[in-house]
Amino acid sequence: MGDISISNGDHHAAAVGVQRKSCWYEEEIEENLRWCFALKSILHTGASQYQDIQLLDTKPFGKALVIDGKLQSAEIDEFIYHESLVHPALLNHPSPKTIFIMGGGEGCKRREILRHWAVEKVIMCDIDEEVVDFCKSHLVVNKEAFYDPRLELIINDARAELERREEVYDVIIGDLADPIEGGPCYQLYTKSFYEFVVKPRLKHGGIFVTQAGPAGIFSHTEVFSCIYNTLRQVFKYVVPYSAHIPSYADTWGWVMASDSPFTLSADELDLRIKQRIKGENRYLDGKTFTSSSTLSKAVRKSLDNETHVYTEGNARFIYGHGSAYKQQH
Amino acid sequence: MGDISISNGDHHAAAVGVQRKSCWYEEEIEENLRWCFALKSILHTGASQYQDIQLLDTKPFGKALVIDGKLQSAEIDEFIYHESLVHPALLNHPSPKTIFIMGGGEGCKRREILRHWAVEKVIMCDIDEEVVDFCKSHLVVNKEAFYDPRLELIINDARAELERREEVYDVIIGDLADPIEGGPCYQLYTKSFYEFVVKPRLKHGGIFVTQAGPAGIFSHTEVFSCIYNTLRQVFKYVVPYSAHIPSYADTWGWVMASDSPFTLSADELDLRIKQRIKGENRYLDGKTFTSSSTLSKAVRKSLDNETHVYTEGNARFIYGHGSAYKQQH
Amino acid sequence: MGDISISNGDHHAAAVGVQRKSCWYEEEIEENLRWCFALKSILHTGASQYQDIQLLDTKPFGKALVIDGKLQSAEIDEFIYHESLVHPALLNHPSPKTIFIMGGGEGCKRREILRHWAVEKVIMCDIDEEVVDFCKSHLVVNKEAFYDPRLELIINDARAELERREEVYDVIIGDLADPIEGGPCYQLYTKSFYEFVVKPRLKHGGIFVTQAGPAGIFSHTEVFSCIYNTLRQVFKYVVPYSAHIPSYADTWGWVMASDSPFTLSADELDLRIKQRIKGENRYLDGKTFTSSSTLSKAVRKSLDNETHVYTEGNARFIYGHGSAYKQQH
Amino acid sequence: MGDISISNGDHHAAAVGVQRKSCWYEEEIEENLRWCFALKSILHTGASQYQDIQLLDTKPFGKALVIDGKLQSAEIDEFIYHESLVHPALLNHPSPKTIFIMGGGEGCKRREILRHWAVEKVIMCDIDEEVVDFCKSHLVVNKEAFYDPRLELIINDARAELERREEVYDVIIGDLADPIEGGPCYQLYTKSFYEFVVKPRLKHGGIFVTQAGPAGIFSHTEVFSCIYNTLRQVFKYVVPYSAHIPSYADTWGWVMASDSPFTLSADELDLRIKQRIKGENRYLDGKTFTSSSTLSKAVRKSLDNETHVYTEGNARFIYGHGSAYKQQH
């Protein structure tokens, strides 16, 4: 009577067979576009003073950190984002000893930075203590990075912290929310911020790198091209690059900037990776960076032609914003 | 700088404002119809030898037990189902002392039955020990019912158990899965089962009641009308009744049958509720049952005209079934 | 080589087999609850001065009229709504010759009313000419009703029209949007509207009936109980009743009111249906109305205890409303 | 009374304000991953002997051709796919006069090919006449290409057609469905097909190019690496390349193969584009192809290490396939 199966269960139980997924995480990439992951479980939900936080366990992308309803990083492909954010700048610097990170509460940046033998000191400055604590408790994979003695964690607004400090850094990394409406966030993407706050805190030969929003063939006009154009008003050498990140359902962008030229060939980059980084990169090597920093025709053209510069009174935003935005525009 | 909010979070965080729900439970009511609840959390998932089990915490309906991808009962409206299944039969019986329940692992039936002062013994027979244990651990609300000394819990196939026993009962309650394809479940809805297994185990004046599937204006033809018609081949008096259950997105049906007539008026039913049941019903009273057992024109007509009788070789099924079904029909 | 099938189609075509539904209509019943129908096609979309209009062809419910993102009526079960709205009032009236309908652009009300032999004149007053025209063009099933010589169609605000007119009616039917935020719609549900606009336009013995929003075991507290309570401040005899409508995923409510008593038994209602209505009802007969107007314990209790009365400065709303609502409350 | 808006519409109309999208196209990219587009309309649905066909009008991606529930090409980004499939091969060939396309019913390939001044003859061979006719009628943008005198359209299985023909071609293009389970489609991706059917039909110096399935950082192991590895068993020079296509929610792959070396630099490619192609490419130029054909570390590694070769008895499949697949693997 092995196949009696559901004869004696409760009312309206379903038939045998391939079971459909029933629990889903759903994100509105844009108003007209949704991206949905089957859910294994909802590990934690919480809210800080600033943001709603969720840690989900998803079937396609593993554990996923969601802040204010937007996927921040997913277990199986965060290495693409974080290797791309951290390594090109540190490898192009002749000797990256001191690093300042704006944002970056969830810890993966630190993990990548601390893999560099040369690094002596990392200041991480995030405004949201609860997110930092949440990630420290729940994202086991990055735990080590939280306890490395080279790391100093500051809870403060990044701008205020940089303005207050007098020391200078080899590399400054911006891992901030995209410039969006309704908060002063875009103030951390403006020409004056780069010119009067960031640049003075870079040592001679120092490099600034920032995440720069979606960089797909259509989506790069949202903020990527403007961040690029704003940075080239302030720095002599500016390198935009991008990579497809499956869990974001898009190609993502970063921009690296300095007053010293970026001259490494793919082979030289590979050599520095070997000499300077503990363990092996999963995503980034010389050829990968060549490909990432060679943008497609359409994107190159837009970037060349971009005239918008972020200033305090003048910002361009990505999708996800309410009434204030509509009233302004 | 109180409103700096997300300036210093991580990349691509969303704007403030009304947050869209991002985690959902989704059920296919039919192939072309879905019913989706925002999720607070996924409390437990498991699998027994027979079925997949999930306990969800949903926003619209509270905690929800899902078996094989189908909602079984939801915290905020299970009282409608369970009061409807249990009380009409027990109240119509002059003195319901011994009760046999087929199925009913999740415990709400027992809770309702044990509210009757007259009840001396309840045999609950469910084939799936793991579901019973799962519910015992996780459905706090019904815990008490699991430990009432009047309750005897048997893990066995309900048919085998009834065939094996010699004692007779005042009321037998069928809380089994709907008659579906691919398993012998419909064997617990056949004329021969009712005639040769159930009826002999009823005392003189005994009452049988069973859940009878969806009973909506269209959905009642799936199994409700056939269960009704099958029972009226076997019992002299048969009463079909129904109630809208919000979490099922449908009206649900039950059928009560006996060889003694059902003669209680609404007022007499109310009196018996007062005299016999501990605590107060939330759903069922005399008028409610009058309404429930007065079916609408379309449904009454279908039931009157139904000619199908469940036999071993001949069943009608509800939605949710694959290739075997299609090949047969 | 008969089964070569997709060897020569285009790139990434899918496998053979049961095809998943890919086009869906999705409605947010509440913020946390969605109801989704597989789509055959989107027949028409449009927008009037007042509302967005869509005519969809859905797999589970046939053609469906959607206004402002909310299902209004679906081909396969609109008869439940429309027979319930129209027939109880007309049948309870001794001789319903003149009828005034507020709203009702899509035509099904008229169809039902015009089935009554006794009816001599029907004034239908809808504010939205485009919706009326849209329905006239696209809802073939009701076309006949649009051309019946007894029908007079007025494009105006119902309140203004009733105030302007001097004639009186046997039956007035309210088929207006639920009392919702952001417009004066709730003004057509207030005590003063009923007292000073509707009642004076009823002949002696006249009957007023209105749709009254969701009437489910939980949802009836949204507006149903308040509409009921407001009407009983104005009329001597008030009868609330309800029916489950599958395509609404809920039980729906209506309230009928008069200063003459409602005394028909189920059998008398059946007799009048036979004598007075052309063709056969699909849903409503005497027993059905007995059941519909016998509310369940929980709903009866709420209605008895309801103290809220709609006045101009004081309304209660159903789900689906934006910023104005939030600012007010 | 301008704002009376919905006071006089039909029952339960919703509030004014930002309207939620209610009609959606939903695709299961994988079992656990969904990609959903808001729908403007369903333009056409049909079914051929081989496949189900839908032409949708979507909000994020414009008109979209869906075959068997899988998006084939979307108006706003099909140029990425089609420029990538066609131009690298034609540009690398010294003088591409005769072209054979396997598949490609929807017409965009032809449009791209016919932009090359050098091309004298294009044979397009698709098995599904109805799809070809459907696209001819409904995809206005490609209409011109259907009537170019250089084009010859054959309705036949591509393998049979190539085997039957004696002439040889400069370029053969494979735009076939991915090698999937349940049909002989993978036979058009096998080593023996490439060796004994395709290669003999190439002129000396001829080039073969094929779409090669998803090529994302994880998805490239589904079929891309195997198609690459199979082709390098047969041809001396094999170039895999990829591009992110937004409407596919993935990076897509192609493989180009020949017995003559591919030696064009980015600048030479740009020069040939200028000289040989009518109009301007939107996506492809020299630098874009450099980037596309420089795969990331993880993908390069997988391709280098791939050992699987498609043979008649031995295939690897992409997502979308039922029980037969699971039994085999």
Within the largest sheet of chain A, what's the order of strands? 8-7-6-9-10-12-11
The percentage helix of chain A is 25-40%
Number of helices of chain A: 11
| Uncertain stretches of 5 or more adjacent residues of chain A | 1-18, 317-329
Write the CATH architecture name of the largest domain in chain A: 3-Layer(aba) Sandwich
Q: Taking Cα atoms only, what radius of gyration of chain A do you get, to the nearest Å?
A: 21 Å
Largest sheet of chain A: 7 strands, mixed
Care to describe what's here?
Four copies of one chain form a homotetramer. With 329 residues, chain A is of the alpha/beta class. Chain A has two domains: 22-74, Roll (Spermidine Synthase, Chain: A, domain 2); 78-317, Rossmann fold (3-Layer(aba) Sandwich). Chain A contains eleven helices and twelve strands. Chain A has helices spanning 78-92, 108-114, 129-138, 143-146, 158-164, 191-198, 224-231, 266-276, 286-292, 297-305, 323-328; strands at 23-30, 33-47, 52-58, 62-67, 70-74, 98-103, 121-126, 151-155, 169-175, 202-214, 237-245, 250-258. In chain A, the strands form two sheets. A seven-stranded mixed β-sheet of chain A has the order 8-7-6-9-10-12-11, sandwiched between helices. In chain A, strands 1-2-3-4-5 form a five-stranded antiparallel β-sheet. In chain A, a hairpin with a 4-residue loop joins strand 2 and strand 3. In chain A, helix 1 (78-92) crosses helix 2 and helix 8 (266-276) crosses helix 9. The longest helix of chain A has 15 residues, at 78-92. Chain A starts with 22 loop residues before the first strand and ends with a helix. In chain A, 58% of the residues are buried. Residues 1-18 and 317-329 of chain A have low confidence and may be disordered. Chains in contact: A-B, A-D, B-C, C-D. Chains C and D meet through strand 1, strand 2, strand 3, strand 4 and strand 5 of C and strand 1, strand 2, strand 3, strand 4 and strand 5 of D. Strand 1 (23-30) of chain A pairs antiparallel with strand 1 (23-30) of chain B, so a sheet runs across the interface.
